[in-house]
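Schema walk-through. Below, the input block comes first and the output block second. Nothing else is stored per chain. Lengths vary across the set, and this one has 245 residues.
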Amino acid sequence: MSDASAQVTSELAPGGVMRVGFNFRNELLTGRDASGQPTGVALDLGRELARRLGARFEIVEYPDPGALAESAGADQWDVGFLGAEPARAKLIDFTAAYVEIEATYLVRSDSPLRAVADVDRPGLRVIAPGKAAYGLWLTENLKHAAFTGVDDATIAARRFAEEGFDALGGLKDRLVKDCARLPGTRVLDGQFAAVQQAVGVPRGRAAGLAYLKGFVEDAKAGGLVARLIAKHGVGHSLSVAPLVG
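--- output ---
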């Protein structure tokens, strides 16, 4: 990629510091190593972006994607790594996705539901984190089943188990773990959505956004994203998003 212009640098790393917002609830993309240092695919991509800009990399940590998205107008971060959803586009301009994550349902073993398409039926109740990218998708796309959005995946799993919901929506990796913790459950094959994990900026930073779009496509085409997925051992749940353009 070509060197960033002064306008790009001023939009993405004002004062030579790039404040990068991360959702630390998404364990596929963010986490901590044995010494407690932040690590993961998204963190490494952010570090590489800062290196290319010649900026100091500063992590701004959020407990969930909703908090990260809702802070876009508060001058807390310059670049954010989170799921690209239409509901968030009111505050954030997104690149194309750099990875995709499969989202599906957990149901009870004796449930008549056999396929993802079976879930959206009258009389059925679905629960999931309401502000997660897949929760926003369910809010917009479930036409017949009743959807309940809660604060996080732990609450969603508990209420699914205790309150008789028909399906628990979530990322496949998390649902496989929930299945192991909740006897008498199974994960449906297939997906209701491929969550598009992208990079965003607060709206109105056109030069910065254009640079980020080029960075993401370069990272995919050049194999960086694939190498990071392999490095962090998350290839069972993440795939490199298709190239754009």
